[in-house]
Amino acid sequence: MSDADGTLYDAGVRTSMSQFASDTATFEAAAAVRTAYQAIERLRSHGTDSRGLSSGAMDLLLRLSSVESSPLKDLAGSAGVSARNVTGLIDTLERDGLVRRAPDPTDRRSVRAEITDAGRDWLEAFRKPSELAMTALFHGFTPDELSRLRHLCLRLVQNQQHIESRLNPQ
């Protein structure tokens, strides 16, 4: 459905949120972000399910494709996941032959991960279907709208990180 100004909204969400909060705008926006995320994940999963990679594993594989190698702790930080989670994801990628572990030559306590040729081949095979899917999903968006959407999503992430830093001071 559309508001008077033409902006889209979900009538079911609006109705349920109006019973929960007096100002539904933030709750409706959060529900819309969650729904958009789920739509992107459903589309992404069509391309990777048969290949056996979760979105987290695929994210690490993409990150590793742009560097020679990376310490696992740095991967965890850049991907925003725990060290334990990144270890499990690297285990999966290594089992599938897409990534290999290597000792860190400068820190013997650290382990690095590096993408294999099979990992690069996997990404190359996934590239074209991904481009087609994202082009279809964002059909009709202007470059300015895409930039604004990216900006707004990353502002949400910044706000979440700020909240977490206040809740868990180091």
Which descriptors would you attach to this protein?
170 residues; mainly alpha; 7% strand; globular
- The strand line-up of the biggest sheet is 1-3-2
Radius of gyration: 20 Å
Pairing-aware structural class of the strands and helices? mainly alpha
Report the span from N to C terminus: 45 Å
Number of helices: 7
Give the tally of β-strands: 3
Largest sheet: 3 strands, antiparallel
| Portion in strands | 5-15%
Q: pLDDT below 50 for ≥5 consecutive residues: which ranges? A: none
Please tell me the overall pLDDT.
89
What is the succession of H and E elements?
A: HHHEHHEEHH
Bulk shape:
globular
Helix content: 55-70%
Architecture overview:
It is built from 7 helices and 3 strands; from the N terminus they run H-H-H-E-H-H-E-E-H-H. A hairpin with a 7-residue loop joins strand 2 (99-103) and strand 3. The protein has a 3-stranded antiparallel beta sheet with strand order 1-3-2. The relative contact order is 0.09. The protein is globular and about 60 Å long. It is 65% helix and 7% strand. With 170 residues, the protein is mainly alpha-helical. The mean pLDDT is 89.
Give a short overview.
With 170 residues, the protein is mainly alpha-helical.
Secondary-structure blueprint of this entry?
Blueprint: H1 11-18, H2 25-48, H3 55-65, E1 70-71, H4 72-79, H5 83-95, E2 99-103, E3 111-115, H6 117-137, H7 143-167
Antiparallel strand pairs: 1-3, 2-3
